[in-house]
Design goal:
The structure holds two protein chains of two kinds. Helices cover 79% and strands 0% of the residues of chain A. Chain A is built from five helices and no strands. Chain A has helices at residues 7-15, 17-29, 33-46, 53-67, 71-93. In chain A, helix 2 (17-29) runs antiparallel to helix 3, helix 3 packs antiparallel against helix 4 and helix 4 packs antiparallel against helix 5 (71-93). The two termini of chain B are 29 Å apart. In chain B, strands 2-1-3-4-5 form a five-stranded parallel β-sheet, sandwiched between helices. Chain B has a five-stranded parallel β-sheet with strand order 7-10-13-6-14. In chain B, strands 16-15-17 form a three-stranded mixed β-sheet. The relative contact order of chain B is 0.07. Chain B contains 18 helices and 17 strands. By secondary structure, chain B is of the alpha/beta class. The chains are: A mainly alpha, B alpha/beta. The interface between A and B is medium-sized, with 18 and 19 residues.
Chain lengths: 94, 471
Amino acid sequence: MSLDLPKEHQLRYLSKRAADIEAIKNGAHNNDFEVAVMIGHRLKGSGETFGFPLITTHGNTIELAGLAQDKAKILAAVDLLSESVQTYLQKMQG
Amino acid sequence: MKSKNASSLVIIDDDIDLLELLSSFFRQRGYNVASYEDARVALTDIESKKVAADVVISDLKLPVMSGLDFIKRIRTFNSVLPIILMTAEGSLEIAVEAIESGAYDFVLKPLHVPQLLISVQRALFLNQVQNENTSLKSLITDQDFLGLKGVIGKSPGFKKAMELAKRVSSSQANIIIFGESGSGKEVVAKAVHELGDRKNGPFVAINCSAIPENLLESELFGYAKGAFTGAVGSKTGLFEEANKGTLFLDEIGDLALPLQAKLLRVLQERKIKRIGENTTRDITARVICATHKDLKKEVEKGNFREDLYFRLNVIPIHMPPLRERKEDIIPLSEYFLKKFALLNNANIKGFTKGAIKRLESLNWKGNVRELENAIERAVVLANSEFVDVDDLPGMDQGFGETKAEEGTTGPALFSVNSIMTLEDMSKKYIEFIFKRNGYAKEQTAKELGIDRKTLYRKLKELETVEQLTIQ
């Protein structure tokens, strides 16, 4: 990714992921897999664009798990997503 | 802030983060950006021209209306607007479907934004070429007469000449076109050629006054190898080159007497002999002549053969000078403006009202040719989207003189029977000075002792500087 993004742009992007994580978890617990498909798809498209390739990877996993209606896999991928977001945030703030 | 000359992008994505990122990226690079989360709203705004769009970037997977549906709807009213589709679905089938639906390009998410920028730049270039192509097509098809491209005029004198040209186009009779230099004699000759049954043959034109007599003979008749010193090979003359077509001999009144005799023989016998050859060759070219001279007077003076004059003067067509067909000045000016704006890549949309008055008031001694040169100059010099009086030739630059529409002694400001207000009198006086100066603002402001801005404001009050567009 050769695009030099302003740091605040990236930080804002990361901070908004908490709501996505919450929404996917809630959806999975309620057997609403459409939320995982929709948000996973979006994260797949945006993560690397903002300079966070792991978010793209997890977004792809979440979308596929949502399509397969695999609750366990969704929740596992969301945990990984959450960890990645935290790591990125710490790196940027540190 | 919206930039006037920047390209306009419409970006559609339901991912707000990406929408903000792309909008920010392109705005920083000088683009005007309109962003939408919903393709339906974007579609309505583009169709109603509420938003300008030179290129659209749209996500493929959108709620309610997909990127593909968006393209299909756009194509019902705009067949050329470049649309770049973005998608995280990287399959070949989707890419093919997108292009087949009318997408200009297809980019994959995660986005490589600089790559998207290149795609946008290419799409803009395509858009520019398509727009120029459309303008060029309209230039050669919008304004024509008798279905002839680039033949412009609506005055009775012009119509009479062109209608006569049409009537005689299919006959074999000799035609001579009379008219001042630059009035469009060659346009009439070409019309005769294009409208007649020789239109698929060549149209060959030569100006008889521009070539020395000895060279003109070899140009017209050709020569055999060794016919004279330097004739290392044979040469086909213009009479032969124009076979099955038309030979246009301009300024025939300047043809030397010996050549007049040879031309007369060709017209009578329909045969030529190349210089240095004994054999004759049949010619099938139609000969059309033209002159700015009064040939009858030239005959009386002994400068032109009477027999050739009668031979040529079977069907005379008179093209009036531009000053006698004022109705043609503006259509011609608009045509030339479009032409030179395209050639110079200048964003010129038309003339101010003052410029139109100036164009109509000049005498155009050099006729259409002079007008064309003046418009070319104006297009190059214009500082705004509209050609103004100051961009046009002044009376002191060797161009046509103004016709005195009213006296230069000034309006009757004072009358025993009517008293006007100071404001009305001031307006009347400004109008008078403005007209007297041929609508030149700088000179008017100088004479009135006010600055240009003040003059402009006062003229606006007089409603004399309303801008008119071509269409």
